[in-house]
Amino acid sequence: MEFLVRFETRLPESLSSEQVAELKAAERERAVQLRQSGILKKLWRVPGRRATVGLWEADDATVLHEALASLPQFPWMDVEVEPLATHPQEK
């Protein structure tokens, strides 16, 4: 099942620049793992914001949630998920 996932990350200002760099590196590493597993299909940045739009694929919403929750920055993400259905013209 495919999902359109939008999220915006708002890291606390209390984090040091070193902590932010560590979180970004860990996030990148986890995203690579999710791509390799086939769950994360495609990502786009939203210009001017710390926001992302992505195409994800998972067996169900629970599996998707587990993948999203495994992201190191998840505690600071505002996430919106839209399940997608195949359009009749795509068959």
UniProtKB/TrEMBL annotation:
Keyword Transmembrane helix attached: no
InterPro entries tied to this protein: Dimeric_a/b-barrel, MLI_dom, Muconolactone_d_Isoase
Keyword set includes Magnesium: no
The entry's keywords: Aromatic hydrocarbons catabolism, Isomerase
EC number(s) from the headed UniProt entry: 5.3.3.4
Substrates-to-products reaction catalysed: (S)-muconolactone = (4,5-dihydro-5-oxofuran-2-yl)-acetate
Gene3D superfamilies the UniProt entry points to: Dimeric alpha+beta barrel
Domain Muconolactone isomerase: residue ranges: 1-89
Domain of life (superkingdom): Bacteria
Subunit structure: Homodecamer.
Similarity comment text for this entry: Belongs to the muconolactone Delta-isomerase family.
Protein name per its UniProtKB record: Muconolactone Delta-isomerase
